[in-house]
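FAQ
Q: What does a multi-component entry look like?
A: The components come first, one per line:
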Amino acid sequence: MGENLAMAMADSAASSAFANLSAVTQAWQLYVLRASAMLRLGSSQPSSPPVVDTEFDASVRVLCEQGLASLVVSYFLDALEKAFKQHEVANLWQQLDEYSRLKEDDADDPGKLNEWVQYTLPKVLSEISSAKLAQEESLRMLTRLIYHGTAGQAVEVERFLSQYHTAVSALLLTSAPQHFPEILNLFFKVRLEQFSKAVRQRNRKPPSGGPSGDSEDDASEGSENNNGEDDEMESMRSSHCTSADDMEINENPSENRETKQVDDTDEARDMEGVDFVAVSHLKLNAGAATMQEVAAVAGEEWVGGVSSVICNLRHIGFAALSEEGYASAIYSLLKAKIHAITNKRYEKPVLASVRSWIEAVPLRFLSIILASSGPPSSKSSSLTFPSPLASISIPSTGVDEIVKEGVVRWRLRLHFFAYETLGDMRINELFDIIVDYPESLPAIEDLRQCLTNTRHHAKLVDSFRTALRQRLLTAGAATTDILLQYVSTIKALRTMDPTGVVLEAVGEPIKEYLRGRKDTIRCIVTMLTDDTGGGGMAGLGGVGESLFEELSRGVSSLENVDSDDDAELDGDEAWAAAERWEPDPIEADPSRTSKSRRLMDIISMLVGIYGSKELFVNEYRVMLAEKLLNKSDYDTDRDIRTLELLKLRFGENNMHGCEIMLKDLADSKRINTNIKAAVAAELSQHGLAVPATSSDSVPLAGDAGYRTPTATVGLVDSHSQATFMQTPGSQTGDIASADGDRKLPLDVLEATIISSLFWPPFQAETLKVPAVVEGLLEEYAQRFHTIKAPRKLQWRKNLGTVKLELQFEDRSAQFVVSPMHAAIIMHFENQTRWTATELAEAVGVPVITLRRRIMLWVNQGVLVESHTVKDGDTVYNIVETMGDAGARAGGGAPSTDAALPLLGDEERESAVASMEDQWQQEMNVYESYVIGMLTNFDSLPLDRIHNMLKMFVSDPPYDKTLQQLQGFLGRLVGEEKLEFREGVYRRRQM
Amino acid sequence: MKVKILQWHAVASWTWDAHDDACGICRMAFDGCCPDCKMPGDDCPLMWGACNHAFHLHCILKWVNSQSPRPQCPMCRRDWKFRGD
Amino acid sequence: MSSSGYGQKEKVLSRIAANRLQKELTEWQVNAPCGFKHKVTDSLQRWIIEVHGAPNTLYEGEQFHLQVDFPEHYPMEAPQVIFMQVPPMHPHIYSNGHICLDILYDSWSPAMTVSSICISILSMLSSSTVKARPPDDDRYVRNCRNGRSPKETRWWFHDDKV
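Then the predicted structure of the entire assembly, as tokens:
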């Protein structure tokens, strides 16, 4: 400054010829002296207006006369800045430094820190603001002095003030410690929470008188009170009504506030998300009113506190910093609210409440802040020393406009933030939301609204596909469950995204996976046709039922799906359709038409898993064929009903083959009856009685002797199973009677006669049936020919089911098996030992087939397998007594087991039981493993259990075959420990 | 061991005892049905001529009716008579 | 002469006819009669068939076109078969394309097929010893000028050998 002065004086000297050099020097010295004194005074007593003394006045005048005005001002500014820096700024940061210490010391008790911030921040801000104000006043005074009477006085004053303001702001900003924004944030956070709480309590008071909320008042201010959150949100909805009423009043003053009731349309309007334009319009008229309302809720002191902090911050140039502070406080509170209210609950819509809450809390809070911020150029508000409420009591129109605009901006911002936060949350939870469908519809509707605003569809697709991969499309999931989830997904996503684009994107992996599962078609058909409603497991009933209903609706839309023209619409409809048209979203797969995307209903989507309805129908036909061929009672009532529904759906022509298949069953039944009647008639004609033994000894499934219902054997596939049936009552004299007569009565034979052209092609399997059976078949065919000439029969000997009883010396057992299994075992009647080669020859099948199929009898303990020494051929021996069975088991089991059956040998029944016991003991080891697995995985198919046992069970090592395991699991099902449905086992729910 | 068959539920397909596979008139399989029918078998039977040529009943009737008074067998042009008449 | 003039009483094929023609077409595609080629059209009711004169006959190397129109009740009724321009010079083939061949008219049997018709026509051509129009060609063609179908003609058939 000294240099500047020297130079300035040199300039002056040049012009005024050193005349008044000493006077100038003297004036300068005086000026500097007075100025410093004034500034010191100002800083110590900020509230007193600066005193202008004559000496100062005179010195400035002298200096100005010498053309040193600019020098005077710049010195003054410099001095102001220096003084501000030394005293005020240092003081400010020093006071706030306490924060770091408190934060560390009282990490466990944020209340103390909060209290400190609430007390200190307003105090120090007010101090520094006053200091600045005082300095401004002195600067103003100086400039007035200098430029008094000149035309540019006002301009100059402003110029220097703004110069000063910039300098001071820069000073503060550059020196602000790192924790300052943190302090601001904390301040606003606490204030906002206080306000939020005040609103909550106010809403709670009217009905109950409000004493219940008192305990909460004691809770520390900053701590989260999750119990209250929902409550608050709930009450917000009613509070929103209050504010809505307020708004209405502004619009229609004639309306009576007290009688106005919340109605559904308000809510509905709210849900639509379009209301906020209207609301904001109404709200804007109410700037001052809102503030008074806020004051009424939170207390004037609270309002004053916030307001003055905002004013002061803005005054010292921290407007941006303070906005950051309150914005982040608002965002984090909003986020916390959304998380608290939405957490894992999907059955209630939350967006409307969130929006109401935004109106009620953050926007009201903001209106205070915005009002306090004032217009940037308004000097009146910053010049006066306002009482805390001053800005509220005199809202100038200018301020009101600012508030209005600000609120609109903030509303949009907060809404978007809410959409984004809620949307992202829901996107992450979408899988669970869909699991809960349709209870979760409100959540889906919320998500739809969020997506409309955020356009985060791609994010949704990615996230949901990942969830599907991890949680649904795994080997452990039952096909039915996958299908149910798929159906729910279809329904839910359709609600959310009517264009169908998202569904298309997420549906593809599900479809692909389902196509790979063998039982998918069966499950779909079961779901489509299950009219029993609650017949399924928990949750199945609902969707299954609705699918059945959907099918029953008989929508023929499927027929139209392929055609993409609107030809079938008449003029009006076509016009309406054209009006509705919207371009496909950009994410859409252009290879599909939008019409097909929209028209597809749920059944079409399920059917679409197979690519086309033709493929689906074909799959169904194969499935039906398998099912019908394994029937032994001709009962097709259910299948006929199913078919009728499918015909409505897929058209009669497509289901024609199936219809003939079912008719074949009915015809077969009639023909069978006719043939049997003819036999009976002949016998009675010849004076012979119908042999009663055979018909009497065919027990029905419901007979008392059966513990498990008869399971028929899958003939077309190779996984044959047999149900072991204990028949305590059947050890009668039948053996002797059957023994003597090698001819079987025709009554034993029943036939399903098919119109082969209309059935799916069968696996051609040659099979030679034993002569007794062959004789029966010939006789039956002959009788058919007699009735139906000139038609004749061609036997498909490998198809069908055989129910037979094996009668051993010490036991007997019944089985339902395929004809090949029957043929195999019948050969052991007369010859107890067969090599695989010989037996294959006798049965007329390749050796490899024989070896595979014969395992059923080996696993049932009826045959034992060994190898000849000579040529290594496999040899099978009949296990005539349980002693032999023990020998069989002796290979892997301890010798004590072999002795077991001998104990109960005297009584045949118990012998059968003990054989079972023995087998049980071997398998019991695995029960706990199986139960454990099914607890973890919910449900598993047979082969997975088998593989897992192989992998995990080493002591004793798991060495059972798939069939043995199946038998064992079947027993656990019988004991009601497990359930078996749709190809998977699961734990039985108690 | 004795095996006692309690029930043998067998499967057979029926077929018309004719020399040809398909009807000479409609060219559809005998074991199927003529184009006018939906159900094969009893509902759409075969008919033999004296010349031993077989047709779907519905097919040969249409032809015979259109050719009266002197219909011929579509296959061999002999005068058509129903077998067994 | 417009070859399509004969289609005046075209009716949609019955289901039986459509069904059978579909089968015949499939069969044709698998096993077409030697010397014939079905020209693909979008109509099942009218077939255009290319005929190649058999080797070692008068028509060797020549190429003709048959137009076969099927009636609603095919095969209970015979199809209308004519040669498109220019028809082969043959004592039983008129210059307007009409063919004097019994199986196309009175001797039709529903057991016949397009394939068997084609073979009959080819054999008729092959057995010809002279390339000439029928003696009554002028008179017949004049009578048919208003677009009459050959099926409306009361034919009486000359001997089988040419």
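Q: Is there any commentary attached?
A: Sometimes. For this entry: Chain C touches chain B through 16 residues (CB under 8 Å).
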